[in-house]
Design goal:
The protein has about 120 residues and is an all-alpha fold. It has 5 helices and no strands. The mean pLDDT is about 95.
Length: about 120
């Protein structure tokens, strides 16, 4: 159990740092009330966790320790549902209701589609 906690922490650190770097890059590229960085990492994170889940399910290639490192740690640190929630509240408070609806709808729909697609890709091999 102690090793798994350490691996989740390491994965979370790497995922969180990468999420921060994506946020910095998106802030430089986009001037918009829509939180593109959070949107991008949530969709990418859903796809990555789908690939990892699919690989683990199909081949058993991921040990429980690797699942802890990559799925719980890295993907958990990289994806940002808490940031998604607070940014949604900010869109509400700034009365950007159309952007809010698009952000929530597309994040959920594309996140599920990315996860499903990744699992389907891995299952097809």
């Amino acid at each position: 159990m102690d090793r798994s906690i350490f691996l989740v922490g390491i994965g979370g650190f790497v995922g969180s740092v990468l999420r921060y770097l994506v946020s910095v890059a998106c802030a430089a590229w986009f001037a918009s009330p829509v939180p593109f960085a959070t949107f991008a990492v949530n969709i990418a994170g859903c796809f990555v966790i789908g690939i990892l889940f699919g690989l683990s399910e199909r081949t058993g290639v991921l040990s429980p320790e690797m699942r802890a490192l990559l799925m719980a740690g890295f993907c958990g640190g990289f994806t940002t549902f808490s940031a998604f929630s607070v940014e949604s509240v900010a869109l509400i408070e700034s009365k950007h209701f159309l952007e809010l609806a698009l952000y929530i709808g597309l994040s959920v729909a594309l996140g599920i589609a990315a996860t499903y697609s990744a699992i389907a890709i891995v299952r097809s091999f």
